[in-house]
Structure formats: structure tokens, C-alpha cells
């Protein structure tokens, strides 16, 4: 079977991969009595995003001859796939739907759009179609919308404009077809506007998406010659008013990168808010290609499956409306042994029955599920559409936890043990929820298993996790969840300063008379109460400057009944509006894992003779490379810059500029709080 060019199209996709060491996969076995129990904390008061209908997705490709097979559709349905993307990655920018051709590529029989839609309907999935930007036209895309939604009544809601179009050579590396003479982000944005206008003139109900770069993934942060900013800034500034969602792709290359997700999504939202214009809050985020991208550490064996489950849960908890696995079928790659099983280097969910070029190794029979398939099945069982994620955390790096609350009052807890040889006992503590005393429903998938085992066993507060396993525990409440206050509506925030924020929300429907509302901050897996009020607004005080806050509201009635937590609202505090000093940090040039930062310091107070500037790196993956125009030192996350002899004196109103090279290996959240001689400065 032909291989997709997405496997080899650019080494930059994998250049930043940080592979797990063999030592991490083969640490000495520990005896059960030597293993410290893992503390898991679940807080039902710390609500995150709701589980979307389209959350679990996958990619189909027109070079896959099994795209339209009933067996394929039925397996995807069993995995809970609710969105299918077509016609397949980079092929989208050479594909012409009307005659089902892809000049320069291979098109398998039985992969036309009608066949795809038939399979999607059998799966029970919505379709996402990628219109041809690279070699197509707005008129061609509009005709596709007309044929799909007007003529045939398919009702395709989601339409992307192109695929990874930043890979057209504008930044140096080229894998994406692009016949436009101008390959800049401005040209892409102008063309997106033309596509959106033409397509929505045919069907105004469709949602149109534009391609962005993913924070901390090439070429994010780069500004090419002649551009007014980065790809994302230019695209959002010009096309923002015309689009309904943005498109990210993520191939992290390592199996432990789920911790990057909250910042990745937050930075994307900040860019949307900053550049996309009025009403930007309507713009959703879709992760239309995701794969662990780590063939040497388990693309299709259990370590990859565990990383997949962790990433799916984290992305959805942070409000991404679909996460689409690359790919349903993909093909054999580098063959290795991982965690006691053969890893075929295949990015597919299902086997393609392909063989190595020398015939020495062949995959299992066609459509045999690989381990990541069971990650999707576990996600289906764990997080159902309409459930709401709540905060969960552990005190052991090898064990991760996620949780959702359900409409019937129950909680589901997903526990992932990434250790290859240690069974971890866990103790689970709950806040804002009291579990029933009976045995919960338990679903478990272990290394090499070809099914998920369901049982009713143990307790809601503890069990032992096998090595390389994912376990879902469904816990019912100790008492009936009836007659309680309704959930407060979506909070909004305004008038955010360095220490305060005004929060308001729609009133909850009362079970009994509502006595008060309680406002909580998500702080890890522990909700911290900020205050309470009898009304539907509250001013949070004593906040910390330059800090991201996620807040929920809970209603409590006069009988003591407590509602579920409201949807979250997230905001970031600033710095003092006025101060005796001001700082402006500018990212002057960026190369994907480092940047040149210029720090302009202004003295607004009495004259200074000698100064020391302090700031803290927001994330553990950031560090100081070098610095100039000051004496720079770093200790852990703390950075200090002391004046040189020639710039130590600052008269009132005077400024000086110093610089540094900052290194990063994850989303680059810039420092926001600076102190000069101990005073917190206003950040401009």
C-alpha cells in the first residue's frame, strides 16, 4: 500500500523530540512493600471544559484502500470516533474532489467523497473536510460545499482551508503544495477570506477553519522577511473576522508532553483574543492532527497508547473541540521492540497488513487494532459527550489522573501508570464529592491486551495500577443528587488588575432558595475558595500579579444543598497600573526553541544609582542562555540582572535596555512580573 508523504515530509516535525531513555523504560523492579502509595486528588468543585460531541476524532486518507470498508467504520464506531477528517493531511492541498484526483499523489480505489461520507455515517461521526488551498480555488471549494450540503444533504459542518500551509517554503522548509506566487501568511489569510465568503454564500451554516502554527512547534514564533509578524499574528489579524475555528497539529515526539497542553492552548487563545478582532471568543480550537510521533518509544505499542490517552484527556479538558488521531491506517515504519512487543512504527490506529521493504517483518492482519486504538476506546468509556472534566492530580510523575463528572452525579476517574515494571497502589481522595461505599465499575487495559476488561471490584478510594496500564473507575455518589440547586451559568470576568478581578455569572435555578454563591479558584487539584456572596457578582481581591486564574462558581441553597461547579472562566492578572518603574519585554527574534529578549527599564521614581532587576521563568522548560548590558545570573527559575558600571544611574524618566537569550523546550510563556530594587514594576 502506498505510504503517505506525511511520514517523511519534514524532519522539523520531529526535530525537538525528547525521547524517553531506556533507563526510564527499564528501571529496576520494585517489591510491592517498597512502593510508596500514590496520592490521587479529585476535586469536583474545580470544573474544566465539557466533553464535546466531536471530541474523539481520526483522519482518513484517500490513499487508504480500506477507507470505505464496513469493518473499518465499525471499529471506529466501537472506539467512539465522532469526527472523521478527509481527504488526508497534505493530500488535501493537491486533491480535486470533483474528479477525485490528486496530481502527484496516489488515490486508492473506493476512496471518493461519497464513499467517505457513507463510512462516516456508519461510524456515527461528523465529517471535517479540508478544502484545497495549495492547488485549488475558492470556487472549487464552494462547489464542494454546494454538492455536499445542498445537492446531497450531507450537512458537513466543519471545513478547513488547507493543511499546514506554513510548510510551503516561506520559512525555509517545504512539504506542502502551494501554487500561489506569494507564500506569505498574508496571502494565505486573504485567500481564507475569499474561500470563507464563497463557501458561506452557498451554506451560511458551515464553520470555516484557518491553519495556525502550534505554540513551541516550528515555525511558531518565527517572523519571515517582509511579514508584519508571525504566521499566527498575520493570519488572525486579517482572517479572524471570517473564521469560526483555528487548526493546530501536534506531534510532540516524546511520550511525556501532556504537561505542555494547558499553556499551548492558553497561548493560542491569547493570540486569538489579541489579533482576531471583535467577537474573537466565538473562535474554537481544533487539533486536527495528533500523534505521539515517537516511533522508537511506542507509536503503536502500549507506551504510545498511554501517552495518547493522557493527551486526549488533557486537550479536551482544556477546551479543544476535537482531537483527531493521525491516522486510521498509515503503514509500516521502523520496526523495534518496545515494552516487550513489536512496534511497527505505524502511525495508524489499525494495521495496514504492510510488510517491511525487505519482507523480513509484516504487520498483523488488516484492521487489527494497535494499542492507541484502545486509548480511544478507553476515552469513549471515560469521558462521554456532555460530561464535564474536573481537576485531578497525583504526587507521582509516573502516574497521571483525569476525572469527569456526569449528569447522573457520578464521577469517572482515569488513571494512567506509565511505569514499565512497577505496580503502583493509589489512594484517591475526593473534594466536593462523597463516593458510595460499594464497589465501583472498573475498566482496565494492560500492556499487550487486546481488549478492555470491565469488572465491579475494589473501592472508590484505592486500588493497585498494573505497569503500563490505563484504568477508569466509575464512582457513584453516596446520596441521591436530587433537589439540589442548578449549576450557575458561565462566569465572565472584567476589570482585571494586578490584584483584583470582577467576576459575574447568570443565576442558578434553585432547588430550594439559594442562600449564597461560593467562588473557587482551581489551584492544582485543590479548589481554593476566594469568597462568597448572595448576589451574582463578586470582586476577587488579593490576587497575585501576572498569574493565570481559573475560577468556578457554586450555588448553595438554604437547606445546605450544593450545586455542581459552573463552567470555568480563565483570566491572567496584570501588573500595577502605576509604579516607580516600568518594564517592556520584547521578543525580538525567535527560532522555535529560543529567542532574543530585549528588556527596556524605565525609572519613574527618584533618581537611581545602581539597580537590580529580578524575574522568574514561568515554566520549568525555560532557561537563560546568555545576556548583555547587565551582569546576568540564574538560580533555578530565578533570574537576576545587575547594572554594569555604565548604566547604573537612572534619572527620573530615564530608560536603559538590556538583553538576553532565553531557551525553551515547551510553550514559551514570557515572564510577566519584574521587580527593580524590590519594587514590582508596571509591565508595558
TrEMBL record:
The keyword Signal applies. Gene3D superfamilies: 2.60.40.290, Glycosidases, Golgi alpha-mannosidase II, Immunoglobulins. Residues 574-684 form the CBM2 domain. It comes from the Bacteria. Pfam families: CBM_2, fn3. Residues 1-32 form the signal peptide. Keywords: Carbohydrate metabolism, Glycosidase, Hydrolase, Polysaccharide degradation, Signal. The keyword Signal applies. Residues 487-576 form the Fibronectin type-III domain. This is Cellulose binding domain-containing protein. It comes from Microtetraspora malaysiensis.
Amino acid at each position: 500500500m502506498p505510504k503517505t508523504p506525511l511520514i517523511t515530509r519534514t524532519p522539523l516535525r520531529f526535530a525537538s523530540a525528547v525521547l524517553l531513555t531506556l533507563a526510564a523504560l527499564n528501571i529496576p523492579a520494585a517489591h510491592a512493600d517498597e512502593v510508596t502509595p500514590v496520592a490521587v486528588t479529585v476535586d469536583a468543585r474545580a470544573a474544566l471544559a465539557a466533553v464535546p460531541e466531536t471530541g474523539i476524532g481520526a483522519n482518513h486518507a484517500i490513499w487508504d484502500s480500506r477507507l470505505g470498508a464496513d469493518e473499518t467504520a465499525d471499529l471506529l464506531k466501537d472506539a467512539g470516533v465522532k469526527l472523521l477528517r478527509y481527504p488526508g493531511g497534505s493530500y488535501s492541498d493537491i486533491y480535486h474532489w470533483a474528479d477525485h484526483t490528486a496530481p502527484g499523489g496516489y488515490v486508492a480505489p473506493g476512496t471518493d467523497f461519497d464513499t467517505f461520507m457513507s463510512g462516516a455515517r456508519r461510524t456515527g461521526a461528523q465529517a471535517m473536510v479540508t478544502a484545497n488551498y495549495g492547488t485549488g480555488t475558492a470556487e472549487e471549494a464552494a462547489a464542494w460545499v454546494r454538492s455536499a450540503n445542498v445537492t446531497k444533504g450531507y450537512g458537513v459542518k466543519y471545513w478547513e482551508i488547507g493543511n499546514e500551509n506554513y510548510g510551503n517554503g516561506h520559512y525555509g522548509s517545504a512539504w506542502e503544495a502551494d501554487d500561489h506566487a506569494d507564500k506569505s501568511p498574508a496571502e494565505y489569510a486573504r485567500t481564507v477570506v475569499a474561500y470563507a465568503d464563497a463557501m458561506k454564500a452557498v451554506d451560511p451554516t458551515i464553520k470555516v477553519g484557518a491553519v495556525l502554527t502550534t505554540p513551541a512547534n516550528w515555525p511558531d514564533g518565527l517572523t519571515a522577511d517582509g511579514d508584519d509578524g508571525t504566521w499566527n499574528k498575520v493570519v488572525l489579524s486579517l482572517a479572524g473576522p471570517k473564521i469560526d475555528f483555528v487548526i493546530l497539529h501536534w506531534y510532540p515526539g516524546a511520550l511525556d508532553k501532556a504537561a505542555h497542553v494547558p499553556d499551548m492552548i492558553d497561548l493560542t487563545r491569547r493570540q486569538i483574543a489579541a489579533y482576531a478582532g471583535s467577537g474573537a471568543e466565538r473562535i474554537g480550537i481544533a487539533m486536527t492532527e495528533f500523534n505521539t510521533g515517537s516511533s522508537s518509544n511506542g507509536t503503536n505499542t502500549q507506551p504510545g497508547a498511554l501517552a495518547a490517552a493522557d493527551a486526549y484527556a488533557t486537550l479536551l479538558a482544556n477546551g479543544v473541540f476535537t482531537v483527531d488521531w493521525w491516522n486510521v491506517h498509515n503503514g509500516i515504519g521502523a520496526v523495534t521492540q518496545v515494552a516487550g512487543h513489536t512496534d511497527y512504527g505505524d502511525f495508524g490506529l489499525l494495521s495496514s497488513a504492510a510488510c517491511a521493504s525487505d519482507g523480513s517483518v509484516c504487520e498483523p492482519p488488516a484492521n487489527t487494532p494497535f494499542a492507541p486504538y484502545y486509548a480511544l476506546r478507553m476515552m469513549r468509556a471515560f469521558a462521554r459527550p456532555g460530561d464535564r472534566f474536573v481537576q485531578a492530580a497525583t504526587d507521582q510523575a509516573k502516574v497521571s489522573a483525569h476525572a469527569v463528572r456526569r449528569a447522573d452525579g457520578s464521577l469517572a476517574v482515569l488513571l494512567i501508570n506509565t511505569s514499565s515494571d512497577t505496580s503502583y497502589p493509589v489512594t484517591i481522595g475526593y473534594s466536593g464529592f462523597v463516593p458510595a461505599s460499594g464497589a465501583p465499575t472498573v475498566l482496565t487495559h494492560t500492556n499487550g491486551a487486546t481488549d478492555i476488561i470491565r469488572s465491579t471490584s475494589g473501592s472508590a478510594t484505592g486500588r493497585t495500577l498494573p505497569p503500563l496500564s490505563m484504568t477508569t473507575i466509575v464512582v457513584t455518589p453516596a446520596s441521591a443528587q436530587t433537589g439540589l440547586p442548578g449549576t450557575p451559568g458561565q462566569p465572565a470576568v472584567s476589570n482585571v488588575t494586578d490584584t483584583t478581578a470582577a467576576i459575574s455569572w447568570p443565576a442558578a435555578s434553585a432547588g430550594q432558595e439559594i442562600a449564597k454563591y461560593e467562588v473557587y479558584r482551581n489551584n492544582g487539584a485543590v479548589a481554593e475558595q476566594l469568597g462568597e456572596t448572595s448576589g451574582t457578582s463578586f470582586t476577587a481581591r488579593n490576587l497575585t500579579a501576572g498569574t493565570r486564574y481559573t475560577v468556578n462558581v457554586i450555588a448553595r441553597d438554604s437547606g445546605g444543598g450544593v450545586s455542581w461547579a459552573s463552567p470555568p472562566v480563565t483570566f491572567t492578572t496584570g501588573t500595577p497600573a502605576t509604579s516607580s518603574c516600568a518594564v517592556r519585554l520584547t521578543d525580538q527574534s525567535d527560532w522555535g526553541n529560543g529567542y532574543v529578549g530585549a528588556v527596556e527599564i524605565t525609572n519613574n521614581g527618584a533618581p537611581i544609582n545602581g539597580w537590580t532587576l529580578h524575574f522568574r521563568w514561568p515554566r520549568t522548560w525555560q532557561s537563560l542562555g546568555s545576556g548583555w548590558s547587565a551582569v546576568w545570573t540564574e538560580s533555578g527559575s530565578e533570574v537576576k540582572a545587575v547594572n554594569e558600571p555604565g548604566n547604573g544611574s537612572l534619572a527620573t524618566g530615564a530608560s536603559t535596555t538590556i538583553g538576553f537569550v532565553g531557551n525553551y523546550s515547551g510553550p514559551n510563556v514570557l515572564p510577566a512580573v519584574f521587580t527593580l530594587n524590590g519594587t514590582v514594576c508596571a509591565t508595558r
